[in-house]
Specification:
11-stranded antiparallel sheet, globular, alpha+beta, outer membrane lipoprotein receptor (LolB), chain A, OM_lipoprot_carrier_LolA-like, single chain, signal
Length: 207
């Protein structure tokens, strides 16, 4: 499950946005922070494809993600299985099938750290927080690319690097690549993104 939570962290990083044509790393960082700060809510569909190097195969999952400033997040797989992770303030709900587990973030060092990185990512702080990632930024005519090198031990054990692809025209992250230590690769593609649209409060219910 820890692996899934680390993937959730990366997905949260992908919710940050870029709002203009940047020409320098400093400018890109500033624009990401400003755009993320203006994002009160965000929801989207996603397709997650895992490429297995040893088996020359891939696994495809689909789901939905919801975020509400500043401490509410729901990550939900809808296919090929049902699984939901809900963060609401200091409480976490993990739902799988008929089983629901509720965890107090403040009573678990691991979950507290996951929650911190998630929220830092969503509000645009991840690209400037050297505690979590070393970041390299570049741009082309069609996209910005942020390469994140994990600095935390648990993430370093899993990921070589994380690559965020920002679509310049739409000013949103379009794709995230997770490159694992052993060569496997996970690609998350975001679709049907809605920013600052109302979200039903029930989406973030933890009980």
């Amino acid at each position: 499950m820890k692996k899934l939570l680390l993937i959730l962290v990366v997905f949260c990083i992908a919710t940050t946005t870029v709002s203009a044509q940047a020409v320098s790393e400093a400018k890109i960082r500033q624009q990401i922070e400003a755009a993320a700060a203006s994002m009160k809510t965000m929801q989207c569909d996603f397709v997650q494809t895992k490429y297995l190097r040893m088996l020359n195969d891939k696994m495809v999952s689909r789901g939905k993600m919801y975020y509400q400033q500043s401490d509410k997040l729901r990550w939900e797989y809808t296919s090929p299985y049902a699984y939901a992770f809900v963060l609401n303030g200091s409480r976490v709900l993990i739902s799988k099938g008929n089983r629901n587990d509720v965890i107090n973030v403040n009573q678990s060092k691991f979950f507290k750290e996951i929650a911190r990185i998630m929220m830092n990512s969503v509000v645009g702080k991840a690209l400037n927080d050297k505690r979590d990632f070393k970041v390299s930024l570049s741009s082309s005519a069609t996209e910005y690319v942020a390469v994140l090198y994990p600095q935390q031990k648990q993430m370093q054990q899993m990921f070589q690097k994380i690559v965020l692809h920002f679509n310049r025209q739409r000013a949103m992250v379009a794709k995230v690549e997770l490159i694992e230590k052993r060569g496997d690769r996970t690609v998350i593609e975001m679709m049907n993104v809605k920013v600052n649209s109302p979200i039903n409060a029930k989406v973030f219910t933890v009980n």
